[in-house]
């Protein structure tokens, strides 16, 4: 097929930067360079001087034997792969710069010489080097095209290396943001009560699994088709809107609290609205693009007893099974008299067990013990 005298001039930065957000950057670079220089073999080489698994070769237009040849080349002390480390980052090198005869006599050189036509010439650039790792682009081409391609390749590799280095940095930031998003979700799920994050328009940005369960059954909170958080009780809903608006518009207030009574009139839920400090980073996920203040809605059900497993009490304080059962029962609101009836033991026996529990937990009063157990239950609450 006829080859163009100059590479196509389509803007290669568009697919590279798109790949930085949603795709494989290196594969995108291979596609872009191969399209610009048809009839060549394009390589992306990753080397890690400390980890064998960190070395890789990606190629477009090369033979199936290249990967095997690359692995063999890594073992040569004065070969093509070793000479690549001597090149300056961001400077285009030619085949005559990369070790002369050493670079032309190794496993890679033989694999390219066996191609039809033979790919005896190359130009490349190391576009990233950090610690023990480096990444390079290299384009192999036939000798009869040397006059045609040497200068265009030099210009092109300079440009695309800068774009590729930036795209790699963007991808790393994307990964960091994705990890931060996952961490935030995991931390929310550790909360022992329902938590919903809202923006200033009262629209839901994220919620933990407890809040999802509550909303799924239509209990206290709901989310409309527009993503706006509301209360299932109309009266409480009006108060919630007023409280949220006052908190949003205030320059000093950071917390608002409202109660949600049960239909029987008993106090059941407490809603705490919190204005969060700062603003999230722009990135991926539900918080992307949010620049105004964020708000958290925390829902606590006062009728639900705190839960604490006997295993935790044994591992933390060394409580026996009976002592742990006593501690858990007291945390749930039972009295010594109630426990004596349920367990069919004397109150004196239970008081002796309570004294042992307080000694092991280093508490002096029953109220202090309950406070300690409450904090422990909050930390170890199951989701």
TrEMBL record:
InterPro entries linked: Sig_transdc_resp-reg_C-effctor, Tscrpt_reg_LuxR_C, WH-like_DNA-bd_sf
Example GO biological process: regulation of DNA-templated transcription
Domain HTH luxR-type: 316-373
Molecular function as annotated in GO: DNA binding
Source species, domain of life: Bacteria
Protein's UniProt name: HTH luxR-type domain-containing protein
